[in-house]
Amino acid sequence: MHLSNYPLLSLILPISCVATLYETIESLPTATYDFVIVGAGAGGSVLANRLSENSSTSVLLIEAGPSNVGVLDSIVPMLSQSLVDSPWDWNYTTTPMPGFGGRSIPYPRGHILGGSTSTNAMAYTRGSSEEWDRYANLSGDSGWSWDEMLPYMFKNEKWTPPNDNHSTVGQYDPAFHSTTGMTSVSLPGFPHPFDPLVIATTKELPTAFPFNLDQNDGFPLGLGWPQQTINGAQRSSAATSYLSPEFMVRPNLHVLINTRVTRVNQTGTDSGNPAFRSVEATQSETGPRSIFSASKEVILSAGAIGTVQILLLSGIGPEKDLSAFGINTILNNPAVGQNLTDHPLVSNLWYVNSNGTFDVVGQNATAFAVDLEQWNETQFGILADSPLAFLVWSRVPDGSFSTPDTSAGPNTAHYELLFVNGFLSNEDTLPATGSFMTIVSCVTAPSSRGEITLNTSNPFDQPNINPNMLATDFDNFVMASAINATRELVSASAWNGYIIREFDDLAAVTDAASLQAYIQQKSTTIFHPVGTAVMTPKGASWGVVDPDGLVKGLSGLRIIDASILPVIPSAHPQALIYSLAERASDLVKAAYDLL
């Protein structure tokens, strides 16, 4: 579904007064700050907000992309899929992957204020308590455990009633949610025609698909209503929450957009370690380079791809790789860029007997215009909802595979199923007629690992991005199990009369060989890259950062984003990164007596 063919309609959006964003380097009043933060996504926006709470602390937040204000496709929840391959996307492409039959695929990342929180599908999932406890064990820091992190999850979340104000009794557990946080989280605000069928399936097939009242209580297994970052009829992102006008007016917080950080610079030594307390930045490939200095720290929050590219271009990484591009190695660390992990997915499609799917929005320009007018005038309707309808978190049976379990424990999923009220696929084209349902199957505890490496020494050239998904027998087994689970789910009698038939490619899957071919041909990514600058115990000789995010072997440089997660969560990462950054903000404040 690609709905960005009506850009002029964005002009009718009511745009409220917006605090000043600095659009040019020359407009900044100074080049020296206490903290310079790179990347305004779920990590950097939180840090900029929390560190600038202290009025005596100066903060510069640098974002490569433009403002999010007035960007219709980002604001309207149902238009989120239109942000792929757009001006608000980095428009990366992966290297060919054997697990995908040698295909290269688009690799979307948010190139806009708010980062990927301004472009994602808005799913808000915390992961299991076991996963947070595993982070605590792997890092040697009990502060990353579920019990210690739950207050930071509450600090991030602002539970918001759904847009249609329907009764949410039996759809979530209020005991595990906060109404006083920053990022709005809500339940679907528009009914889907299959909602009662899904709930009926949990009663007909309770062993395979047990109902879970709240998948964010630390025990996500089962089928439940999705929680998503929506405020009324609009996306709630890091930009709309942590960088809203009430915070942007702080005189000690400067936010610079349309500016790419090309490297961090060594500024001296501290106790024998190289110190990195400045960044080089520019607003165009051929434009002048400017230097911004931090009296305390530079914090990289550019994500699992951007952060690593900056590190490598700065001489921080594997010496053998850096020397090939003529880059002087300041810190030889082979772990930089390794361990890239992501969630592969397959969109499984059915023809359905319904006139209530969102397919008409993509099939008929007139219908789209009517729906958009309804959204604009009333803030209601099908466009006020995200594409997500229900989530299933599940495991393959114990003993069904010989390799060690990749999940964090028995309460953590190996795969996810996502219900979508319409045709959602990056690998197939929406037919001109017909109504559809999609159940996305996604491997959430993969064993495959990839890497980020430099392609050139030009910071405006994308690096080599090799997620290497579906590279192991285990991951392929889990994906096959997940696809089979979608078929089992719709076999329930509740779907009689609603499901017409499987979509063409899925219908051709009749045995193990055709299933494997289907997986290779149709797999893509849910774009959740993590793990390229992993966090390990303080004093460990491996890894990239200590448990507080400080880069090992250096001074003045910290990383707070998805790159430091040592293992990918069985979850959509944005909620974890928000919470991680909330705690990291306190760690930084404590280090400089700013609490």
TrEMBL record:
Binding positions (FAD): 261, 573-574
Domain Glucose-methanol-choline oxidoreductase N-terminal: 33-344
Extent of the signal sequence: 1-19
Swiss-Prot/TrEMBL keywords: FAD, Flavoprotein, Signal
Top-rank lineage group of the source organism: Eukaryota
Keyword Flavoprotein: yes
Glucose-methanol-choline oxidoreductase C-terminal domain boundaries: 446-581
Name this polypeptide is given: Choline dehydrogenase, mitochondrial
